[in-house]
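Researcher: Sequence recovery benchmark, item below. Answer with residues only.
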């Protein structure tokens, strides 16, 4: 008899992806989908799409989605969670959407301790609009708007959003992960699952930052981009739990 070793998660729709080769969005979608299925939340979950590369996230995950204006996903999530507090609610946002135009929205959501989860995809650049410098672009990293590399004298240093938000009392759980290799992927899955679990327990605002690739705008192969995440991004954005009010890792 044949035995199924692996199959598409029931939390994902059977569609082709629009993401570039080597982009980590698809992997992150998969981890969220598996988490929702395993926690029996898929049928009731509400996701909030960003403006950016993941604007079509609702086409891939098998749960309800709402499209928010640029940067306003936390405000939409707040409205949904406060009117339907029993639903699992999450925002899925990139660094431009969350750390630039949406910085105030995410800051105040964390400050208030809104009881939803944010999945923050940090690829250190604006992906959809042409590879401009983002708030998370590393010092010395080249982009279409920093041709000589990010210069701290002109641009300041990149923002560590997980650490910044963790200074706020409403933040219940924050962890930074990556999905550049299998051990890291398993840790990322555990972090996402914990974030949703704490949300449904009503603990407070939960936040998972995922370091991700952008091979197209970085000008790298998918393999080289994944290695760059591990070798370079993690030096400035260290992986691990940053805040956990429950104290269990």
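Model:
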């Amino acid at each position: 008899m044949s035995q199924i070793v692996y199959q598409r998660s029931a939390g994902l729709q059977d569609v082709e992806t629009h993401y570039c080769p080597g982009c980590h969005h698809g992997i992150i979608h998969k981890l969220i989908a598996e988490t929702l299925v395993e926690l029996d939340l898929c049928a009731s979950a509400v996701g909030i799409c960003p403006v950016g590369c993941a604007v079509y996230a609702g086409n891939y995950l098998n749960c309800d989605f709402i499209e928010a204006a640029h940067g306003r996903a936390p405000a939409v999530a707040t409205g949904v969670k406060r009117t339907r507090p029993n639903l699992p609610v999450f925002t899925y946002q990139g660094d431009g959407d969350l750390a630039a135009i949406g910085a105030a929205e995410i800051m105040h959501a964390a400050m208030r301790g809104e009881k939803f989860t944010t999945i923050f995809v940090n690829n250190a650049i604006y992906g959809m609009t042409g590879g401009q410098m983002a708030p998370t672009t590393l010092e010395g990293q080249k982009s279409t708007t920093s041709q000589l590399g990010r210069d701290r004298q002109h641009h300041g240093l990149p923002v560590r959003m997980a650490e910044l938000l963790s200074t706020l009392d409403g933040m219940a759980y924050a962890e930074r992960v990556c999905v550049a290799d299998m051990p890291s992927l398993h840790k990322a899955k555990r972090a996402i699952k914990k974030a949703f679990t704490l949300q449904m327990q009503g603990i407070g605002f939960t936040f998972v930052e995922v370091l991700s690739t952008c091979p197209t705008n970085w000008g790298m192969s998918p393999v080289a981009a994944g290695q760059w995440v591990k070798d370079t991004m993690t030096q400035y954005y260290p992986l691990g739990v940053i805040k956990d009010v429950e104290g269990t890792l």
